[in-house]
Specification:
alpha/beta, five-stranded antiparallel β-sheet, 18 helices, PucR_C-HTH_dom
């Protein structure tokens, strides 16, 4: 417990007498300081018991004492000790009245009590309080270490930390999701701090933030402190603690110990995950090399269950710049969702890409789809703010159809094809089913295809611009009718011989034969690319 004025008054060896401010004796005392200056305020930090003999002030002057006491109160001085029998035989009434008016505790110090005795008492009490705090902090560290080694791991550690602080504690993973909280009701409060946790995660580690009672997750005057976890510059998690007052020395020791232990646990888990990732990369290479038997043997118990059921292949790619770190967040999202659902997942970084192999219909696939849609919505909102400008670059995801190990290579190609379409369309996510069952027409929106179409049809458009015939419209009608002269001529409202003449002119101008099915296909696609899907 911190030393208070009441503790000094009750100290039998000091023989102090209270003359004013008896109702404020529970105020903590940080230090005792002797000063005979008329204005000692510039040398005060606040929280001091000031000891004087009134050598440089007129303690009997009421106005001077009022001004003197008010300066002390504004400076945060918590008490005034006046030694009698030195310059004054008793404490002057002017000083007593001024102290009473401003509520400043005034203590009479008898001549036989030296100021040194008082400063020693304050120093000894401060040292004892510090020793108690350090001892309590070390004890908390031992308890937290034992909890971290328990089977419950972080959950047990959070429970001990919350009990030690008399508040609550919560742990967030790298994606910002709450993974554990203590007591149980704290999970609801922690979940409302998502925006603050996200801002902290975006800062280089180590980082911390203190949220006041008006924060989103604060209730009942909570003071919330956030601490990042991780030894590198990338935050691996966040610890949140909520208390009803600022942390003391013992509480600070406990929180620092929890941060160190959770960081150690997180980094150890990361090292294990890195080893698993290398094994997963080997499994993926074997699957893509059409060696499902070898892949299953290497996968063992770690990834074997993933290969026993239908899975989907996901290929994600970042743009040239990925300022939001979306690719890394996508990988963390897949791993976190799979961990919560206790399902296997294989995440393999490949340069500017990430390949994910996850159970069809599982939590990891659903989480990746949800994240991609969130990115796409955010990108669309950003484009709207730029008044229809292009979407901001970011992550694009291609997702294969459900498959088995024997067809993993085909699934990978499906995901790559879907990714290519996503890039061309400015989408964050395209599933293979959209490419396989949709129309081929949207694929013609590519600038290179349009450039080819314009070049192929330019001579016909130039001919029509002279007013010598409508060759482009005639070609479109003839191709749409599969080369049926009468039907196409009827659509155009001309005689079939006129249409035949026009098609001969098309062949002459283009230097290509309409009897060639490849030529007809190219012309039809060129017409569709320049006019858009009908």
């Amino acid at each position: 417990m911190p030393l208070t004025l009441a503790s000094l008054v009750n100290h039998s060896a000091l023989r102090l007498t209270v003359l004013a401010g008896a109702d404020r004796l529970d105020t903590p005392v940080r230090w005792a300081h002797v000063s005979e200056l008329a204005d000692p305020v510039p040398w005060m930090d606040g929280g001091e018991l000031l000891l004087i003999t009134a050598m440089k002030i007129d303690a009997a002057d009421r106005e001077e004492m009022r001004s003197y006491v008010r300066r002390l109160v504004r400076a945060g001085v918590v008490g005034l000790g006046f030694a009698v029998g030195v310059n004054y035989d008793e404490v002057p009434g002017a000083l007593v009245e001024a102290a009473a008016e401003d509520g400043l505790p005034l203590l009479e110090v008898p001549r036989r009590t030296p100021f040194l005795a008082i400063t020693k008492a304050v120093s000894a009490a401060a040292a004892a309080d510090q020793y108690h705090a350090v001892t309590a902090g070390f004890e908390a560290q031992r308890e937290l270490t034992r909890a971290a080694l328990a089977p419950e791991g972080p959950a047990a550690l959070l429970a001990r930390l919350a009990a030690h602080l008399g508040g609550w504690a919560a742990l967030y993973d790298a994606s910002g999701a709450v993974v554990a909280a203590a007591p149980g009701w704290a999970a609801r409060r922690a979940a409302r701090l998502g925006a603050d946790v996200k801002r902290l995660r975006e800062r280089p580690a180590p980082a911390s933030a203190v949220l006041g009672p008006d924060a989103a997750g604060a209730e009942g005057g909570d003071r919330i402190e956030l601490q990042s976890l991780g030894s590198g510059r990338r935050t691996r998690g966040v610890l949140a603690v909520g208390t009803d007052a600022p942390l003391g020395t013992a509480g600070r020791y406990a929180v620092n110990s929890a941060v160190a232990l959770l960081t150690l646990t997180t980094e150890r888990s990361r090292a294990l995950q890195d080893a698993e990732a290398r094994l997963g990369a080997a499994v993926l290479r074997m699957l893509l090399a059409d060696e499902p038997g070898h892949a299953r043997a290497v996968a063992g118990e770690l990834y074997g269950a993933l290969l026993d059921e239908p899975f989907r292949m996901l290929v994600a790619e970042a743009a040239d710049t990925d300022p939001e770190g979306e690719l890394g967040v996508l990988a963390d999202t897949a791993e976190t969702a799979a961990s919560r659902a206790a399902e296997p997942v294989l995440v393999v970084p490949e340069g500017e890409r990430v390949v994910v192999l996850a159970r069809d219909g599982g939590a990891a696939v659903a989480a990746c789809i949800a994240y991609a849609r969130t990115v796409e919505a955010r990108r669309g909102a950003a484009g709207a703010e730029r008044e229809g400008g292009p979407a901001a670059p970011g992550v694009a995801v291609g997702l294969s159809a459900p498959t088995r190990p024997a067809a993993a290579g085909a699934a990978f190609h499906q995901a790559e094809q879907a990714l290519s379409v996503a890039r061309r369309r400015g989408r964050a996510l395209v599933e293979h089913e959209e490419v396989a069952t949709g129309s081929v027409m949207p694929l013609l929106a590519d600038d290179a295809v349009r450039a080819f179409a314009d070049g192929l049809l330019r001579a016909l458009h130039e001919h029509d611009a002279t007013g010598r015939g409508d060759l482009v419209a005639s070609l479109r009608a003839w191709l749409a009718r599969h080369g049926q002269w009468d039907a196409a001529a009827a659509d155009l409202g001309v005689h079939r011989h006129t249409l035949r003449y026009r098609m001969r002119r098309v062949e002459e101008i283009l230097g290509r034969s309409l009897d060639d099915p490849d030529v007809r296909m190219e012309l039809w696609l060129a017409l569709k690319a320049t006019t858009g899907p009908s």
